[in-house]
Amino acid sequence: MTELRSLRRNIQEGFNPASKRMRVVALTKYDREAAATRQRFLQYGQSLAKAGIELQYRPLIGDDYVRSIGSRESWSRAALLRSYASRFAELFRGPGADVLWVHAELFPYLPALFDRLAFRHGIPVVYDWDDAFFLNYNESRNPLIRLMLRGKIERLIAGASAATCGNEFLRDFAARYCPDSMLLPTVVDTDVYRPEPCGRARLVIGWIGSPTTWANVRPMLRLLQEVCAATNARFRVVGAGTDAEADRFPGMELVAWSEESEVAEVQGFDIGIMPLVDAPFERGKSGYKLIQYMACGIPAIASPVGANKTVLSAGSGCFATTDDEWSAALRRLIADAALRKRLGDEGRERAIAHYSLQAYAPRLIALLEEVARPGRAMPHSHG
Question: What is the pLDDT, as a whole number, of residue 63?
């Protein structure tokens, strides 16, 4: 863990003991406590360094904002304005990079005109998408947001040299505007996320996520309470935030998320669940929870929504839609340890082959090297 923290510090400070023949600057929305920053950017640092690519990351908003979401504490608007101003200044100055790797957008809820500052220095821009952020504008309930920002994301992608996309739905969307759009699932390091058997008196049904995704679990709470009461199982919830306190029932445990304990928490589950409401934004989710469960050899149950249908296979878990299907799947797995083991083993193999850092780092390196190649044609449209 000390080595991992040192690596991340080196990435942020721009230190790279390997050859500095190429520098990639990742302009992320959030700092390292956000899963998107850690898993879609930071975890590639060591692989990139070995390939002679220096990775720096510069978040728009610090970890205090991410923490405020979970605690429902207000966050300073003045601090947000300072963050935007700092990013404006950096882009005017020039970020000193061979490639800019942008998470979603540079200035959320500002017109595309401001994001186009990324193109002003002629540096190749790669956009990264792990959620259907375009729906926040195109299908907003606020008519002013729709009027001012509808189509913003599409215009940005059209000006990009490439896009890295968390699932096929997002890749297909991005490819309409940017032909060099690559599937880059939110993967895990399967040398870190691995099975860790341990004896428990009571079986654990687990969920890990954030306060913003907890809403997908709420419709199932009565069912989960009934299953736990009938089977003596526990329901362990990691990262739901203070709002989930009001949802607590006997047998339900709430645990605060931390980077240091995240892997151990997943390893402590016997069954992992990923319910999703079948709605447009959720159809753009990337199935990251399932990948975490599978890499740790945990059998999973999921809603057949969005990327879940691709990530989870019949051999590594179960799909459920109705309450009866969820109840039957949970009770079946709770009662059958051999089935849990078989599904978990299959899920682990699937994660290593299709959703691991080891599988995708070479593809990302190839894309970044191609984008930065001297003489490569730049996109004509900047939106």
Answer: 78
Query: Which class for 341: exposed (0-12), middle (13-18), buried (19 or more C-beta within 10 A)?
Result: middle
Run of H or E including 271: strand 271-274
Global pTM reads 0.86
Write down the pLDDT at residue 9.
Answer: 46
Using alpha carbons, list the distances in angstroms from residue 355 to 63, 186, 189, 278.
27, 7, 9, 23
Q: Are residues 243 and 210 in contact, defined by beta-carbon separation less than 8 angstroms?
A: no
In sequence order, the 6+-apart residues with CB closer than 8 A to the CB of 280 are 132, 135, 139
Say if CB 239 and CB 179 are below 8 A apart.
no
Supply the pLDDT for residue 71: 56
pLDDT the model gives residue 69: 63
DSSP 8-state assignment for residue 263: H
- If one counts every other C-beta atom within 10 angstroms of the C-beta of residue 177, the result is 20
CA 337 to chain centre: 30
Q: How many residues are listed for the chain in this entry?
A: 383
CA quadruple 39, 137, 112, 158: dihedral, nearest 10: 70
pLDDT at 16: 42
The closest alpha carbon to 57, from 29, 35, 77, 80, belongs to: 29
Distance CA 111, CA 71 (A): 30
Please give the single-letter amino acid code of residue 173.
F
Structure tokens at 49: 């360094």
Q: What does the alpha-carbon distance between residue 277 and residue 239 come to, in Å, rounded to a whole number? A: 19
Q: What is the pLDDT of residues 215-249, one digit of tens each?
A: 999 999 999 999 999 999 999 999 998 889 999 99
378: CB partners within 8 A, 6+ apart: 122, 124, 161
**In whole angstroms, how far apart are CA 7 and each of 4, 27, 45, 101?**
5, 18, 8, 19
3-state SS class at 3 = helix
What pLDDT, on a 0 to 100 scale, did the predictor assign at position 20? 52
DSSP 377: P
Local structure of residue 181 (DSSP, 8 states): E
Spell out, as residue ranges, where the chain has pLDDT lower than 70. 1-20, 66, 68-75, 377-378, 380-383
